[in-house]
């Protein structure tokens, strides 16, 4: 949470005035979680959808798309008659450990959702704010993401020009440096070919 | 062997041919071998790029399964 947002949040009138999209999503979702935990629910889709709609309308340049991705990751769950009624979760059958999958497993196993795990699961949804146009964003935005290349959680930073993924960039640079080395070896091989050609011509002339 | 070693060897071969220590026919054989090495490295790099674009974990150079 940013210091500016914390300061502004002390006054209820400024609650949504200065916060970044990431702060807003965290705030709203923590509210949702607190309310859900009071009611003995890990996930209450109706409430989540209601709050998420508000957040998306306020923060995203593509509210419908953000909301759709938001709700896809949230899945469907309701505590009914002392039993969990879980219909489906996205990425449920995938082998790789994914933040949203962790959430699903936690709900299924322990019947409760931990707050920090939940916020981690939200990181992918928050990353959807990359579609927000530059002129609507006044601060750099940071979010946790799961890299598909190295399967690690890392922080992405948006400086207004796009999301930077440090681990993936490093791998790209590694490939690029290898390509440069290869080009250098190729050049030397061609030079060797030219030298052989010249040398054989010289030998032929000497033979005549 | 690293790329710098390969480069060094190629430079040595160039020098040897220019000095007359190595015959052009031997040099041609070495060029053929170097071309094969270049081709295999090029293919591995292409595979790394493709797997990265597909969002999969790419293997390091020399770790590609052939069969």
What does this structure look like?
The complex is a heterodimer of chains A (208) and B (67). Chain A is built from seven helices and five strands; from the N terminus they run H-H-H-H-E-E-H-H-E-E-E-H. Chain A has 208 residues and is mainly α. In chain A, the strands form two sheets. Chain A has a three-stranded antiparallel sheet. Chain A is elongated and about 100 Å long. Residues 14-19, 73-77, 83-119, 123-139, 146-152 and 160-167 of chain A have low confidence and may be disordered. Chain B has one domain (3-53). The chains are: A mainly alpha (208), B mainly alpha (67). The A-B interface holds A 148-151, 168, 171-172, 175, 178-179, 181-182, 184-186, 188-189, 191-193, 195-196, 199-200, 203 and B 3, 6-7, 10-11, 13-14, 17-18, 24, 27-28, 30-31, 34-35, 37-38, 41-42, 45, 48-49, 52, 55-58, 61.
Tell how many strands the DSSP assignment of chain A holds: 5
Major sheet attributes of chain A: 3 strands, antiparallel
How much is the average pLDDT of chain A? Answer: 56
What's the total helix number of chain B?
Answer: 2
Q: How many strand segments of chain B?
A: 0
Shape of chain B: elongated
Q: What is the percentage of strand-forming residues of chain A? A: 5-15%
Rg of chain B over CA atoms, rounded to whole Å, is 16 Å
Query: How far from one another are the termini of chain B?
Result: 23 Å
Largest sheet of chain B: none
Radius of gyration of chain A: 27 Å
Query: Fraction of residues of chain B in helices?
Result: over 70%
How many domains of chain B, as an integer?
1
Estimate the global geometry of chain A from the Cα principal axes: elongated
Range of strand content of chain B: under 5%
Major protein interface: A-B, 25 and 29 residues
Helices of chain A, by number, come to: 7
Q: Could you estimate the helical fraction of the residues of chain A in percent?
A: 55-70%
């Amino acid at each position: 949470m940013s210091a500016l947002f914390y300061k502004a949040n002390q006054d209820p009138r400024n609650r949504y005035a200065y916060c970044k999209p990431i702060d807003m999503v965290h705030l709203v979702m923590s509210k949702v979680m607190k309310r859900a935990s009071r009611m003995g629910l890990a996930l209450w889709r109706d409430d989540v959808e209601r709050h998420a709609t508000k957040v998306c309308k306020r923060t995203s340049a593509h509210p419908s798309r953000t909301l759709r991705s938001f709700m896809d990751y949230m899945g469907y769950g309701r505590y009914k008659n002392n039993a969990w009624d879980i219909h489906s979760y996205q990425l449920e059958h995938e082998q790789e450990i994914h933040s949203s999958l962790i959430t699903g497993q936690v709900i299924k196993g322990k019947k409760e959702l931990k707050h920090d795990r939940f916020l981690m699961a939200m990181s992918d949804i928050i990353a959807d704010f990359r579609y927000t146009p530059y002129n609507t964003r006044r601060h750099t935005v940071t979010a946790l993401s799961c890299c598909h290349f190295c399967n690690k959680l890392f922080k992405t930073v948006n400086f207004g020009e796009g999301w930077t993924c440090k681990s993936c960039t490093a791998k790209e640079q590694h490939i690029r440096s290898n390509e440069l080395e290869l080009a250098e070896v190729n050049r030397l091989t061609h030079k060797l070919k030219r030298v052989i050609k010249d040398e054989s011509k010289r030998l032929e002339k000497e033979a005549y | 062997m690293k790329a710098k070693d390969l480069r060094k060897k190629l430079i040595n071969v160039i020098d040897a041919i220019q000095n007359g220590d190595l015959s052009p026919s031997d040099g041609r054989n070495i060029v053929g071998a170097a071309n094969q090495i270049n081709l295999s490295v090029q293919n591995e790099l292409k595979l790394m790029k493709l797997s990265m674009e597909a969002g999969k974990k790419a293997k390091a150079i020399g770790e590609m399964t052939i069969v």
